[in-house]
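Predict structure. Chain length: 150.
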Amino acid sequence: MAGGSAAELILFIAAIVVAASVAGTLTSEVDRVSDAISAKSLDVAGEIRADAEIVSDAGAQVYNRSGNENVTVHVRNTGASDLPAEPGTVDVLLDGEYQTEVNISVVGGGDTWHRGDVVRVEFSAADLPAGDHRLKLVVSGDEEVFRFRT
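Prediction complete.
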């Protein structure tokens, strides 16, 4: 009888050790998933706060408007946060080509692109061929596409 109780006790202790190991593993995995969800929600919240819309008219002249062979579009800050009116704020791609020399200025003046404000985005596009073109703006993860004809 005593031998049977000892075997049962050993099996019981082994079961407790296995259960504790499984519980520890599950707890650490739940913590990792929770951290990942928190990080993703912060990223999404940042993207929601930074949102922009191109307000230029595709039917209006956006290329060579000032005679300097440049592209000029107007973009409104529709997000919940203010953004700096600096070239690094907006990534510009014209027909799939990244534009490095971009000038951004707030319409009406100022250095900060407040919610509801419009900025003028200008960059040189010398020798842009006649036809249809695709302009892509990326503002803090928000992507906007603008199609126009020269």
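Summary: The chain is about 30% helix and 35% strand.
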